[in-house]
Amino acid sequence: MTKPKCVYKGLYQHLIGSNYNNMVHIRSGQYWENCGSEETEAYETLLEPTLKSGLAYLWENREGGGAMGLRYLGNSNSKGGVKKETCGAGFFTDLCTLEEWSKRHRSHLAIYLGAIKHAKRFGESRKFRTWHEVSVLKQGEAVFEYINCLPQTGMIRFASLDVVSNLV
Questions:
Q1: Pfam families attached here (predicted)?
Q2: For 93-108, what is each residue's pLDDT tens digit?
């Protein structure tokens, strides 16, 4: 991982930059729109809180866990209503760090075991779906742009950014 060349104020600045070579992006999705009430309740009361706890660990331990920018996102329908579809999306320092967290850390093991229990409980009738999309990026494949943001926002502390302009 390459640290930024300078520390940015963020506030009152327009910043733009890109990723270093071998930065990782992951999107981990959950879809339960087609689940019955029992399976929906099981996901929303048992598995989803475990998932959110694992994401919180990564966010609170960004240096050790390798997460640099991380968000839990929900989808909405065309009328603005909430769909039963979410994803965790984020950038990680490198694939090795992400793999180590997923193989060894108790927060991911809890998510994994919770998903296995859910699958066993609902068996062949299970409608809950999950997926992972992982990309190892070449330098410059992601662009980061921030306008008047706090220095701890997103990738500001982790990406090499240029000050496009000062806003005051």
A1: Dehydratase_hem (PF13816)
A2: 999 999 999 998 999 9
Confidence (pTM): 0.86
Check whether residue 120 and residue 166 sit in a common domain: no
- CATH classification of the domain holding 63: 3.30.70
Same domain, 155 and 93: no
E-only strand ranges, 20-159: 23-31, 67-76, 82-92, 129-137, 143-147
3-state class (DSSP) for residue 140? coil
Predicted confidence (pLDDT) per residue in 33-90, tens digit: 999 999 999 999 999 999 999 999 998 888 778 999 899 999 998 998 999 999 999 9
Which of 5, 20, 9, 4 lies closest to 165, judged by CA?
9
Helix axes 48-60, 106-122, angle to 10 degrees: 170
109 and 162 both lie in a single domain: no
Question: Active site includes 132?
Answer: yes
My answer on whether 65 and 130 are in the same domain is yes
User: Which helix H or strand E contains 162, and what residues bound it?
Assistant: strand 160-166
